[in-house]
Amino acid sequence: MIVIADLGATNARFCVTEDGSTISAVCTYPINQYASMEELCISYINENNLETKKGVIGVAAPILSDKVTFVNVDLEFSKSSLEKKVFPDGLVVLNDLALQANALHTLGSDSLSYIGDNLLNDKKPRILVSPGTGLGLAGVVGKSVISTEAGHINIVNKAQRPDLKKIVDSFIKKNSRMPTYEDFLSGKGIQYFYKFFSGNSATNLSNEDILQRRDDENCVKTINLLNYLLSSYLRYVALIWGANGGVLLSGSIINSLIKEEDHANFRETFEDSETMHEFMKTVPLAILCIKDIGFAGGLEIAKKLL
Known about the structure:
Elements: E1 2-7, E2 11-17, E3 24-30, H1 37-47, E4 54-59, E5 67-69, E6 76-78, H2 79-85, E7 90-95, H3 96-101, E8 112-114, E9 126-131, E10 135-141, E11 144-147, H4 162-175, H5 181-184, H6 187-198, H7 207-212, H8 217-241, E12 246-249, H9 252-257, H10 263-270, H11 277-282, E13 285-288, H12 293-302
Parallel strand pairs: 1-4, 4-7, 9-12, 12-13
Antiparallel strand pairs: 1-2, 2-3, 5-6, 8-13, 9-10, 10-11
Helix pairs in contact: 6-8, 8-10
């Protein structure tokens, strides 16, 4: 029996697998209500009366050493200490997008919604991008998964059309630094864009409300700018990775943000390269429709621990 955990900056989602193919005991916990990783994991295990000493954990943090420090939440832990106290029979800790990207090894066509006609090719490099509390990106080359911190790249000048330029300038004035793509292609970015367009610094609309209300002028402006910025970001990272096997998008923000009527403009911006247009035309773009992609990726890793 193996615990699988997918920890973002807001919520920790847990499940358990006994066979590496199916999951049970699915639970979600708000991370900021727990003082430590040990407390969080033990709470899940005890609450579900589990007898398990193995774990696969994806975290919204770079894995640089034994000490793991989250980027967008005040939490850190020691991998060796967590293994000793909670998972003495085996523990794998990896970046949350790397965890999710392991699911790409076993994708079925029913899990995908394509933006354009090009189909994924698992023989070539692919990338997975997921906006959430932050902005994650992982690469997949063959059977290897490579985690990155590409969300922290500064927004390039070419992407700054007039409305975005005004928002970038306001961000710099407020924060005394250039915005990164993660600042805007994330939950906090949705709010920042909407408040800028509406002039309302205290909106009661949730991110989901903003992305769903296409009858509201400021919501539409927010949606259009997010789609523009996301598609231009994907163009840059696809070129950097040489990701002619495909660019995949996942997460609840993606599934609310990009509708079928957005596909043509999204694809046009994605391909808008003065020097590499022909290459970009060949790159597949697809949205992952899997709800629990972190669990799907965790199952692939868990098979190695059984």
